[in-house]
Design brief:
4-stranded mixed beta sheet
Length: about 200
């Protein structure tokens, strides 16, 4: 959901005020030459990322479609592992399904112990069309998803793939925040702002 930054700043100021029993926080703490609004604005993207990266995928759907071309390191298109480059602004891969899979992939990272199972020569241990696995990996060219595994041959294509982009303030001074996460973002933003102002949030 698209949210104007000015509204987020206003709601954060209210949150900071309500967290004080007496004098408002922004009147008791110094912040150099920056105004309170400047400090809040500087932390909007960070607070949004902190909240969004821990949300369930269902709360982030529908995501942004991924339109790219698959690579097949094994040399045979449509057979074995496919590699799908991820967009530069990808923060979360929400779902991916190839045309010969019977369901979307289970998404893991290369640090997951299950990753080593994908390279075993024994069939049925790693991902397959009935139990596909997508592994988020970092390569010199950027982040990719290794997709295990396909068997249908040259006709295999991406049936669906969606991701959630890194939250950024747009040119029209807005930022996308999932509607159910808005209050959490404001609370996170108030906490980050209070810490910058030198207020001990552990006392809250």
């Amino acid at each position: 959901m698209k949210n104007p930054v000015r509204k987020i700043i206003r709601d954060t100021r209210v949150s900071l005020d309500f967290n004080q029993e007496e004098t408002p926080l922004f009147e008791t703490c110094g912040a150099g030459n920056l105004t309170l609004d400047d400090i809040i604005r500087s932390k909007v993207e960070m607070a949004t990322r902190n909240v969004v990266q821990h949300l369930d995928n269902l709360l982030l759907a529908p995501g942004t479609p991924i339109r790219t071309t698959l690579a097949w390191p094994g040399g045979t298109p449509g057979v074995g592992m496919a590699v799908m480059p991820l967009p530069l602004d990808c923060m979360r891969l929400l779902c991916v399904q190839l045309s010969d899979w019977n369901r979307p992939a289970r998404i893991i990272t290369e640090d997951d112990p299950e990753y080593q199972w994908q390279h075993t020569p024994f069939p049925g241990v790693g991902g397959n069309p009935d139990r596909p696995v997508a592994v988020i990996c970092q390569r010199p060219t950027g982040w990719v998803a290794e997709l295990f595994s396909s068997t249908a041959g040259r006709g295999v294509v991406i049936e669906k793939a969606q991701y959630h982009p890194i939250p950024r303030i747009t040119e029209d001074d807005c930022i996308n925040i999932p509607s159910m996460a808005y209050d959490d973002v404001v609370r996170q933003l108030a906490s980050l702002t209070a810490e910058t102002l030198g207020y001990n949030t552990e006392k809250q």
